[in-house]
Amino acid sequence: MFKPRNLHISGGTFTEKNNYGPPIGQGALLLHFYWDILTFSQSILAGFETLTKTAAPSAFYDHRGHEFDVPRCHKNTRVAVLEKIGDWVFEITTFIMWLYGAAGAGKSAIARTMAEILHTRQQLLATFFFMRADPSRNHIRSVIPTLAYNIVLSVPESLPLITARIEQDPHIFQRPFDHQLRQLILEPLQKLFLQDGLLFPTVIVVDGLDECLIQEERITLLHAISINAAQHFVPLKFLITSQPEVPIARIFNRQFVWSHGEPRVAKT
To answer: C or N terminus of the chain, fewer CB within 10 Å?
Structure first.
């Protein structure tokens, strides 16, 4: 299927050979042209519909339910932490920041407040807020479709690239996590950045990783991000929050930690 661009037809007699019958004239060529546009649009819509059905809206940072389960930081609180995160967004040496602390330390409030700040600054690409009690966001199966849905909204140019992958593999959301990450996030954004020279928001916020019920899934997510993101030339930054569990801490084995109160931040 071709993507028509800057096509002009004026005067003359046009014919096109095809496999289904005799040559077609100008009127039939125009009909064929508009049919391709319609088919291409339907393909995008079908892929986006699949993405919409698979995403978990309650995992968005600005989901209405978060007014109750994810409060914001009060004004003039957590200023040092928020400033540290804001400074890290502009660093080029670290692409993952780990915000950790005990239960009730305010990690989710910081994550949501930071997401709002980054959105205002046009630096927020996507978010996923885990929650143990919510079956739509207490596992990693909905992480990639939710992030991809957010990315389509933040970077409209990514829509045909992401939906094309879904059309090519309608069962892609049953594939391994790292495969989904590469196919639906890293490779489409890499193409837009390297080939098209497009600049876009860079920060992805993943909050409450310890709220994912299965420990192996938490490690899978961290391994996929740390290994695959480092191998792709795309300027992404991942802000990840969790309790300081030992298996999670082991992933962040190259840490620069500051500990001016809780929560603390590690970067890798």
So the answer is: N
